[in-house]
Amino acid sequence: MGSIALYMRLSSEDTHAGESLSIGNQRDLLYDFIRSRREFDGRNVLELCDDGYSGTNFERPGIKKLLALAGNVVDCIVVKDFSRFGRNLVDVGDYLDQVFPFLGVRFIAVNEGYDSADNPGSTVGLDVSLKAMVYEMYSRDISEKIRCVQQAKMRKGEYLCATAFYGYQKSKTEKNKLVIDEPAAKVVRRIFGLAAEGKALSEIAAILNHDGVLSPLMYRKANHTDGMRGWTAASGTPYWTRENIKRIVSDERYTGCLIFRKRTKADITTKRTIPVPKDEWIVAKDSHKAIISKEVFEQAQGILRHIEHRKPPGKPQQKFRGIVKCSYCGRVLTRMECKTPYFYCPSRKSRTDSDCAGIRMDEKELERTILESLRIQAKMERPLPDEGQQEESRKDGDSIQESIHKCQLKISRYKSIQAAIFEDYAEGRMNKQEYLMRKKELAVHQEEVERECAELSEQVVTEVRTEQKEKCSIVEGMKKCAVAEELTREMLEDFVQVVKVSRKDEMEIIWKTGINKE
Question: Whose CA is closest to 384, among 479, 475, 508, 509?
């Protein structure tokens, strides 16, 4: 006999309803229920909980774990009411009407008086569908109300984010207000001052790094706020870069205004956001004390636009784009266009004293080395599949085989149930009409599982054939490399994962197809 799963959920909007929906209250109610039913005596009880998650979708860690256990470890699910399980009419209906009966899982909603065991084989009733519809409508209604309240606060200049952006901190005396963080604000003023003088962004970053000024990320770590949502340095680097300097210089909030609603949720059932037209942004002027004046901000913007305008027009895609990286900081190397093109680490402009500053790789030398390495490997024994790909393929294969095994177990279960209901019919415990209806229902479910099992088996055969074709394709591609006179972008994309360059023109080639390195 399987375990009983008690599922509890509480979202931010539920907190407005009071203590009745708290996790503790739900737990007490569910335990009182199972203690009152003798049929549950001695059964193993599991608790699964989602605290702070919306019920409009099933992207919740607790519910995902519950659904993974359903039909295997768990054969009975108990919730306070349908809205705890979910507020989406379609999804809730599918689980109650299709998935759980298919898996042989009993579902109980205590406050609704619903128990799937009372009506085996029947579809979800109209009252359940109406309740699910009401919950979904309620969720949409309260979501819209919360959005309206938040937008009203935004227009009043209240700061609603979890943490303040660099240069400010949240007021300890006034809710939803920002106050200047003077140590960081001093750095912001210096950045704008240097920009107004016409300094390049990378030059400003180099000055700050040379003077030992903490980057936004390291400053937050020093103040123990790095675990919260908010600013991080570009690419997670613990030093000043051109990118985070540009981010600060372009941020109008330093003039004392707040800008909200640049993006909004596409729908309450998803976390996907969509951009909002600029004329619909919410801008609250003079919402907090400015760090720099509007005149200084506009002056910096003018110089920034001038710097951006000086950039050369777009060039054709380079064959090494995104492949050649610095072995010290991991950044993609920049190609210098000149008589003899070469690659260098962009970090050298902002970190003149780092190992990155010594990286310089001639493009012709890089191309010659990679092409020669490809030729050598092509003349050796056929390339082996990448170990990571082997492991991934093995995991995928195991997952499919496990799914096939589960399907076979379900088919066996349906056959056992068919034998049991025939016995009930033969001994008079079930009339002919009930027997035929139940038999037809089981036959439909069994046919679906058999079809799924056949599709999975076909998938295994297809993947084996695909893997064989890929191996043949790799061998053919390597043969072409053996006689190639020029290195192409296609050759790099097919066989090279990354090229790591270090000082003294040293490089490490990491192959996609698991070719042995010399």
Answer: 475
DSSP 92-135: HHHIIIIIHHHHT-EEEETTTTEEGGGSTTPPPPHHHHHHHHHH
pTM summary value: 0.46
Residue 6 — pLDDT band, cuts 50, 70, 90?
Answer: very high
Comparing CA positions, the residue from 246, 245, 249, 218 lying closest to residue 232 is 218
189 pLDDT band (50/70/90 cuts)? very high
What is the tens place of the pLDDT at every residue in 325-342?
888 888 888 888 887 888
> What single-letter amino acid sits at 327?
S
* pLDDT, tens digit (0-9, with 9 covering 90-100), for 359-409: 888 888 888 888 888 777 766 644 444 445 555 555 555 677 777 777 777
Q: Are 88 and 269 in contact (CB under 8 A)?
A: yes
Amino acid 20: pLDDT: 47
Cα-flanking dihedrals φ and ψ of residue 6, to 5°?
-100, 115
Short-list 51, 98, 108, CA closest to 74: 108
Beta-ladder partners of 387: none
Contact yes or no for 45/3 (Cβ under 8 A): yes
**How far, in Å, CA of 151 to CA of 261, rounded?**
8
Q: Write down the residue that tokens 């009372």 correspond to.
A: 118
Q: Which residues contact 207 (CB under 8 A, 6 or more apart)?
A: 194, 199
Dihedral (Cα; 348, 352, 353, 355), 10-degree rounding: 10
What is each CA distance from 305 to 198, 246, 300, 310, in whole angstroms?
11, 11, 9, 9
Whose structure tokens read 């082996």? 384
Report which of residues 222 and 466 the model is more confident about.
222
Tell me the CA end-to-end span of the chain in Å, nearest whole number.
58
What's the burial of 151, exposed, middle or buried (CB within 10 Å: 0-12/13-18/19+)?
middle
Q: pLDDT value at position 409? A: 77
Q: What is the DSSP letter of 70?
A: B
**Residues in the chain, total:** 518
Q: How many CB atoms lie within 10 A of CB 366?
A: 22
- Whose tokens are 């003039």? That residue is 255
Number of helical (H) and strand (E) elements in the chain, helices listed first: 15, 17
